[in-house]
Known about the structure:
This protein is α+β, with helices and mostly antiparallel strands. The chain is built from 15 helices and 11 strands. The strands form 4 sheets. Strands 7-11-10-9-8 form a 5-stranded mixed β-sheet, covered by helices on one side. It has a two-stranded antiparallel ribbon with strand order 1-4. Strands 2-3 form a two-stranded antiparallel sheet. The radius of gyration is 46 Å and the shape is extended. The N and C termini lie far apart (130 Å).
Amino acid sequence: xxxxxxxxxxxxxxxxxxxxxxxxxxxxxxxxxxxxxxxxxxxxxxxxxxxxxxxxxxxxxxxxxxxxxxxxxxxxxxxxxxxxxxxxxxxxxxxxxxxxxxxxxxxxxxxxxxxxxxxxxxxxxxxxxxxxxxxxxxxxxxxxxxxxxxxxxxxxxxxxxxxxxxxxxxxxxxxxxxxxxxxxxxxxxxxxxxxxxxxxxxxxxxxxxxxxxxxxxxxxxxxxxxxxxxxxxxxxxxxxxxxxxxxxxxxxxxxxxxxxxxxxxxxxxxxxxxxxxxxxxxxxxxxxxxxxxxxxxxxxxxxxxxxxxxxxxxxxxxxxxxxxxxxxxxxxxxxxxxxxxxxxxxxxxxxxxxxxxxxxxxxxxxxxxxxxxxxxxxxxxxxxxxxxxxxxxxxxxxxxxxxxxxxxxxxxxxxxxxxx
Length: 420
C-alpha cells in the first residue's frame, strides 16, 4: 500500500489536477471543514479533555511535592482514577525515586498525545521520574555537613558564652570587693574622716567586721581574675586552674566562720555604717555587701556545671576530667564554708575552735542530759532534748539551739558540754 502524498486527494478521492482554480479553492475549503469535522468525530473524547486532565495532574503533583518536599527515600503515591466524559484516564502510580517528578507535556498533533517523560500503555499512564541534576545532591550533602558543623559551632559558642559569663561576673565581684576595701575599710582607717569611728569599734574590733576580706580581694584581683581571663583563649586551662586554686579558696572557710560575729557587730553599729554608705554614695548597705563573698563561692559550681555540659556535648573528652575535679572542689569548699558559719554561731565555748581539728559532721541530735547508759531508770524517766552536735576530729561539742532557721535568719548555738 502506497503512502498518501496529497491530503486533498485523500479527503475527496478526486485528483487535484482535474479541478479548476476557483473550484479548487471552493472544494478545498469545504473539504478542510469536512476533514476537521471528521477528525473531531474520529478522535476519542478523552483527547479533547486531555489538556484539562494534565492540568489536574500537574496540580496534584505540585501538592504532593509541597507535602513531601525533598524526600530522600523512595515513596509511592497512588492517586484515585480520574474520570471525565465517557472515557477514563487512570494514573497507576507516580514513582518518587527522587524529589523531582516528571510532568507530562501534551501535543495534539495527528490526533495523538505524547508525554515527554511517560510511557502510555492501555488505559493507564505511568509517570517516571525526570532526571535529577547532580548539583542537587551536592548541595544537599553540603547542607547536611554545614548542619553538623553549625551544630558543633553552636555548642562551642554556648560554651564560650558560659565561660565569658564566669569571667564577667568575676570582674563584677572584684569591683564589689574593691568598694568594701577601698571604701569602707579605707574610710574607717582614715583618722581625719568626717565620720568618726565609735569608741566601741576601736582597738581592733573593726577588723572583726571584715575578717580576711582584704586577702580574698587581693588574690582575686591579682591572680584569679587574670587567670580566668586567659582561659577565654585557652578554655582547657580552666579545670587545672581551679585545681591549683583549691588551697586559696579555703580562705572562704575562714571568712564564713567569722561571718556570724561580723553580722552581730554591723547590726549593733548600723547607724555608723549607714553614715559611711551615704558619704561613699553606695547603694547597698554594708551587710548586703559583706554577704557577696558567701554568694560568690556558692555560685562557682553552677557556672562550672554549665561549662562542663557544653564541653561534654562538644565531645572534648580530654577536658572533662579536669572540669569534674573543679566542680568537686567548688562543691566541697562551699559546704565547708557553710559548716563553719554554723560553727561561728557557737557561743560561750571557752576553748579554741581551730584547735579542735577538722569539722567532720554537725547537725541536730536528741540527747538525754545527766543520765548514764547504765542507769536505765534515769534514762527512761527523762524526755530527750534536741541539741546541736558538732563532731570535730579532737572533740564533740553539744550546744543548745536558740531560734529557728528562716530565709533571713539562722539559729544560734549555746555551748552545753563537750567530750574529748
